[in-house]
Amino acid sequence: FAAEGAKVVLADVNVKRLEDELADIGENALSVQADVSRKDDMERLARAAFDKFGRIDIMVNNAGFTHRNMPLTEVDEHNFDLINAVNMKAIYYSTLLVAPIMEHQGSGVIINTASAMANRPRKGLTWFAASKGWVVSATKAMALELAEKNIRVNCICPAESEGEALGLFLAEDTPKAREGLKATIPLGRFSKPEDVAEAAL
């Protein structure tokens, strides 16, 4: 988005990651340390974005959390609640905050990141897949309701990416297991950050 000339507001709980991203983008960016699963943090984020740039044209809900691959009955309540908070409630909070701003502006776009698992669940990731199915369903309903306010809502369902979370998707994180997972992806490779970025643009 920054490369296309947009003014960007970044949010993350990880300060170092924010600083690194901000250094790459330059002056047309603002970073806010925030936990998207907390309403007060989301309110602070929306306020900071609006105070800095005077409007919010695009909201990308890209945060995600999953438990390690395991039988569904072994996922404890703490991890189940985290999945719901990060993957679902964060979208609820952000929509409550930015939709009124976008309506007042006369337009806006909300982009939710779901997962290929929303439509093609994997064994051992039941609650994660269910949360991403919720994202797809919520996106469709949001799009219907917000269309009359000239707010477009879409979602992206990327395949697994070869990042730090990949091992969580596997019952055993071995080279053989990774190759087996990759073989189930039609393109024959894991998704890349630029795949998601280009789809969002």
TrEMBL record:
Per UniProt, which keywords does this protein have?
Answer: Oxidoreductase
Sample GO molecular function, one term:
oxidoreductase activity
Mind telling me which InterPro entries this protein's record contains? Answer: NAD(P)-bd_dom_sf (IPR036291), SDR_fam (IPR002347)
Supply the Pfam families for this chain.
adh_short_C2
Q: Which PANTHER family match?
A: OXIDOREDUCTASE, SHORT-CHAIN DEHYDROGENASE/REDUCTASE FAMILY (AFU_ORTHOLOGUE AFUA_5G02870) (PTHR43639), SHORT-CHAIN DEHYDROGENASE_REDUCTASE FAMILY PROTEIN (PTHR43639:SF1)
Q: What is the similarity comment for this entry?
A: Belongs to the short-chain dehydrogenases/reductases (SDR) family.
UniProt-recorded name of the protein: 3-ketoacyl-ACP reductase
Q: What is the lineage of its organism?
A: Bacteria, Pseudomonadati, Pseudomonadota, Alphaproteobacteria, Hyphomicrobiales
